[in-house]
Amino acid sequence: MHINLSQEMEQYLQSKVGTGSYRNATEVVCDAIRRMREADEKLANLRAAVKVGDDQLDRGEGVAYTPERLVTITEKAFANARDGKKVNPDVAS
Question: What confidence tens digit (pLDDT) does each residue in 32-86 have?
Fold first, then answer.
């Protein structure tokens, strides 16, 4: 496979190799592709989670978002953090 890069992109790629974090340009490209795949997967998971929520709302299963509800959510999040519970990956950034 042959890939044409702009001079700016090639310089950037070579600078990544120059840091010593990568042995060669192929490793930089492979890492970039791996990161893109992870981002694509995360986006697909987020879209699936939103669809679940939309479907629940369509069925009337929603809960009104009020200031009181926000306090409840926040208190639960802090309690979970204190208890060492991991954040659900569906809601983590």
Answer: 999 999 999 999 999 999 999 999 999 999 888 899 999 999 999 999 999 999 8
Which residues have a Cβ under 8 Å from the Cβ of 3 and sit 6 or more positions away?
A: 29
SS3 58: helix
Whole-model pTM?
Answer: 0.67
Cβ burial, residue 29 (10 Å; 0-12/13-18/19+): middle
What does the chain come to in residues? 93
Domain boundaries defined on the chain? 7-61
Q: Which residue has the tokens 């669809």?
A: 51
Closest to 3 in 3D by CA, of 30, 40, 42 = 30
